[in-house]
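Help! Submission page says 'invalid entity' but I think these are all valid:
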Amino acid sequence: MDVQPGKPLLLSGNEAVAYGALVAGARFYAGYPITPSTEIAEIMAVEQPKVGGKFIQMEDEIASLGAVIGASLAGAKAFTATSGPGFSLMQEHIGFAAMAEVPCVVVNVMRGGPSTGLPTKTSQADIMQAKYGSHGDYPSIALMPNSVLECFALTVKAFNLSEKFRLPVTLLSDEVIGHMREKVVLPAPETVEVVDRVAPTVPPDWYQHYPATSTGIAPMASFGMGYRFHVTGLTHDPYGFPTERPDEIESLLQKLKNKEIHNPKDLTMVEEYMLKDADICILAVGSVARSARQAVKMLRRYNIRAGLLRPQIVWPFPKIPVEEMLEHVQFVLVPEMNVGQVRKEVERLAKDPRHNIRGLNVMNSVMITAEQIVERVLAMELKTKGARKGGRVHV
Amino acid sequence: MSETASESNNRGTGILPVLPVLPERPESPARVVPEEPPLQAGLTGPAVRFMDRRPGVYSWLRVKKKFPHMWCPGCGLGAILGAFTRALIHQNYSKDEVVVVSGIGCTGRIPVYLDCNTLHTTHGRALTFATGIKLVKPHLKVIVFMGDGDALAIGGNHFIHACRRNLGVSAIVVNNSIYGMTGGQVSPTTPSGKRGTTAPLGNIEQPFDTCALAIGAGASFVARATVYHYNLMEKLMCQAMSHEGFSVLEIVSNCQTFFGRLNKSGSHIDMLKQMRDRAATYSPTLDVAKARSEGKDLVVGVLKQDDGRKEYCALYEEEVVRPSMAGKG
């Protein structure tokens, strides 16, 4: 499909994800059809053979991510796209990819849950699944776009992080973003920063597939390159062979965890909007952040100093920006389309009892509007001001 | 493939930049079948053959790193590993072009001992990983080892779909009729009436016939051997690996530790003898029903070979890539 960079286009979020993946260098896609992510697979079926890549429709989501991991081990940048039920099936292999340190990208276009739920409606209820879905302690990286252009940009970013850290990375889009069409101007592919995995330069005899490094970043060989290594989901030593020695297990799991905690520069990505002088912070992620941004503008018109904090990388949770924000705001509102998955993370960071954190949780699959957020803020504002000095709100 | 891919990049307009294509596929080296070494005067038989080939076998194993192996004494997997390394030597593959993938279980431990590209995956999913590897690098030889529970219970779905797809991967299913690593539970191939720890009074379910399932699902090469038929096993491994499309080789093996003990089948030697007595060599004229009535229910040999069907990667190149490129140009 002809996509002209630099010219205005009318694209949906799923299309932007597909083009983002192609620009990031993805040359393998394996997937299983599921609403509302199917468009990504359909575009890949057309585009991959044109760029020398491979597309395959597998028998289920477990097999899809299995094939993606196999392709990644063979040296291709690979990804798959799915929605809630498929994402649950993929958890087995997300754990494998984290343990075996295989870079890959999983796009989860969230829909209403639990179980089959609401295939054609939106939700943000997979945020915790993206963090804790698989068994065991493993590092998770998840990104949440809030616009079509960001679907493109964060897909490229997801591939870059995945290749750099040798980890599975989740892109948490949702039905609204995936199916919404917006005017976008895509950057020229040459100007997009693309990170490729680093190939080892040592002789094969010296090669360790899992060397112990403090940041967890290491070069990676692929099958057929002349480095004969073993890859396993069992706890392994630096060469990849199964081990049951407590010291080796400890250092392996610590190294995995270090990827998440020793690289805050790479793994913190937040957008602030009118937050400098704000008394009230609206912390929102993904599609809800669009309404939240509008709500901030409306509240400013009422002379209420509101601001928006929007984590674009939601896992690992942006500890430093959120803690800084908690220092100087009176209260925080977390609107989200679930029972409060992000709010609990904010509460965890708020150690001071004076921190006032409230949620606006909508689970009826209808997008939260700016008016709902404004109403909630005004109610909170009235309550606080009333308690303080009988203050007045210009409504 | 690489030539057409780079062409498209040069020609490409719009968003797609001149992107790096996947590494070029090197021409597979011409297969040179080594001549049988001359036998020493006065000595004949398997002993000499073993001595002649011994250094070769060792060169394919991670001898210094990973041995002794973790299987029970008398387990059929040792013989299977031995036959497999000999088959690899006979095929004259280089160690870098062979990828051995496995699932979970006793059989899943085979790749650890082999000095090539090895991947030990999740339970039952080995074939899906192999699919990804083969599609990205079709010049690699991908061999998948699975146990019976691995291939037919948890991985049954992946197994039949791999058969249907006809991707150039060899699946070797080691069938010992029981879950050995977890301690003797019944598997999908445990014969009716036989005991496992989860069927203490005998299995009331009907077992799968691995080869019939593979034929039904459309695999283009299906064969069966037992660990008793060692030379046949080695030969069939060579045939399975040289086959263009998807090949299934079922190897009936023994688990005297659990299956033998629970079903009073005796030692591993006794179990091998039972395999010998139960086996009938396949030929188109073989009356399977008659052989079965005589107690010969294990039909060994090549049960199906269809060389006419195109391999998946070749088909993808021909039917998908070429028209896509043409449409684009």
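Support: the input was valid. A stray whitespace character was the problem, and the output above is from the cleaned input. The first strand of chain B starts at residue 98 and ends at 102.
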